[in-house]
Fold each of these.
Amino acid sequence: MSGVGQSLVGWLRRRDERGRTPALSTGLQQPRGRAAATIAARLTFENVERRFGDVYALRGVSLDIEPGEIVCLLGPSGCGKTTLLRIASGIEKPTAGRILINDWEVAGPERFVLPEQRNVGLMFQDFALFPHLTILENVAFGLKALPAAEAAREARSVLARVGLEHYADAYPHILSGGEQQRVALARAIVPRPSVMLMDEPFSGLDVQLRETMQEETLALLRETRATCMIVTHHPEEAMRLGDRIAVMRRGKIIQVGKAEELYHNPAELFVARLFSEINEVPCRVEGGVLRTPLGNFPTPGLSEGEPAILCLRQRAIRVMPPGCGLPGRIVQTRFLGDVGLLEIAAEGFELPLKARVQESEGWKRGDEVSIEVDPSRVLVFPADNLEAA
């Protein structure tokens, strides 16, 4: 079991020893013998830092997640996503900054609330199921405050919701990866937490099963109405699941917004690369525009003579018969199912441009073509974005 999984098991055991998870910001305790109702909470990070010696895992991270909102943390491995999630859960402490749940400070310079007192649900990629407990016992593990019969009813109800009631008396080792994922999800939601934290929950599943589990998980999260933060390095997964996406790089959040905003208006080249397949063409501002064989493009915010990167989305390049646009020749084709990837040697460009077209268009290697680009789908960034990306 990974270190993250061991941390989760420790958290579950401590919560078990205390009997139940206290209520949050109101200070009111849930009635004994009843599971806590799902009341979505606001999750707030204020200038959070995490430092290991001289190495910063997080630098000044601020993020506000609304009650009932699903936010995906998106970025490459090592960017600080999981560290931020572990700090939210209480498994790690921040070096600086504050974390609040419904304006209740759970971590800060003068305060640290234990994980089992935060009313958060945790789900990690290795699931951390107890191998010596049945499926029912795993799901009911966080309901020790309830009478045994009531805890079993609650656990069976959630198992039925994820389609595994018939495995109640079985043990985890007989389940497939997708079934274990469902059990872990059931265990996380059965106490009805105000905040759900999920770290790469679908990474161990094959592509087809992953999509199915994403849809099932999303439906269950909407049903429970818990606030949720999901860590992922898959842009499509983030777009599928998140109400908003927070893009992270090198310990910082560099852009937050809805999927449409990040796709159409990326703040940096790094973000554009996450959400689009693009051709990157070095240029220089001349006369207030970027002059290219495909036309002139505006350069808002860039100075005369400044180097820039012109980004042409592969899907924004239109491929036509000769005589309709900029001349070119197809030098390579790749079959990608319904889509064909073309490499086109176009006049005035040093390197071939890549274009994604419908496979049914039937273009072949060696075909003479013309190309044009939709100006509204062109992106321009300062050249120093290359180093940052």
Amino acid sequence: MLTTPPLSLYVHLPWCVRKCPYCDFNSHEGRGALPFEAYVDALLADLDHDLPLAWGRTVHSVFFGGGTPSLFPPAAIDRFLQQASARLRFAPDVEVTLETNPGTVEHGPFAGYRAAGVNRLSFGVQSFDDGCLQRLGRIHSSGDAERAVKAAQDAGFDNLNLDLMYALPGQSLAMALADVDRAIALQPTHLSHYQLTLEPNTVFAVRTPAGLPDEDGAWDMQEACQARLAAAGFGQYEVSAYARAGRQCRHNLNYWQFGDYLGIGAGAHGKLTLGASQQVLRRWKLRHPAEYQAKAGTPAAIGGDEVLTASRLPFDFMLNALRLNAGVPMAMFEARTGLPRAAIADHLATAHARGWLEPDPDWLRPTELGRRFANDVIGLFLD
């Protein structure tokens, strides 16, 4: 039987200053004055429309993603959070994360975001090498990034994530380690460290940048940076996530543990457990901001709904849970899919035989080999 997992709220703010050539997110270059107030109105109408799917439930985390959410002034973030918390019950210790681009913020807005209720910032640094940043099409410099992080700390933020990429065009192992060292020196609580990938429908997919490290070079960077982060007290708890003790990202943990989340905003995706019908629903919204704004709050703003079938649920669960180094209890699979463990017995037997999962029958935990071949492990559960 399905049981209701924790609930999060994802809010998509779609505009950015300039689309990066590697980015496959739903982001749109802002031209002219952005409609901040009108977009917040649309978000609230969207939330009102989806509220019946989450009546009476407590929100444990909020995440403003993009795009570049830090383009929005603190007053707009404040109005949204006040109105959202009047409609939904926010946990007393709710985690509220705002993604920021070091090239779009100054000291003033950080204090405003903190006053609005944001208590965690995620900086899209990507690299501290100015040459790498230019090749990635970023609008900030390494100095901008360091100043932005220090300004946030001066404003009272003590829960900060820095995004770093490796295997960048023209990057050596020494350069990748130097990026990690400069990030650690800024004393964040969390680091996301992930490999540059050439995603479909991006500029880099069409025009492959010169100087990309080969597969062995990328693996060397991953292992060396992972060791450097561990030595500095950052424990790896997910494929690309490292945190100091007690500072894991609660919002992302809820994703990876197959929790529920309302998704509002242009192109936002949500996942909700429907207790009455014993179903798991995925819902996504229209991608283009103008079309979304015109239709927000009506069924026409829904890009699609999908009720996950019994054959699809194991794959969706494993796609998230097996990203976690510690894995999850088997009881969580049963509670959050509504399926008995017998439904995946053959898949588990194959994974165990290949040495991809630990042998504990009551825990789903990838081995070191399984983490290295994560896509193959997860693919076993796709029927």
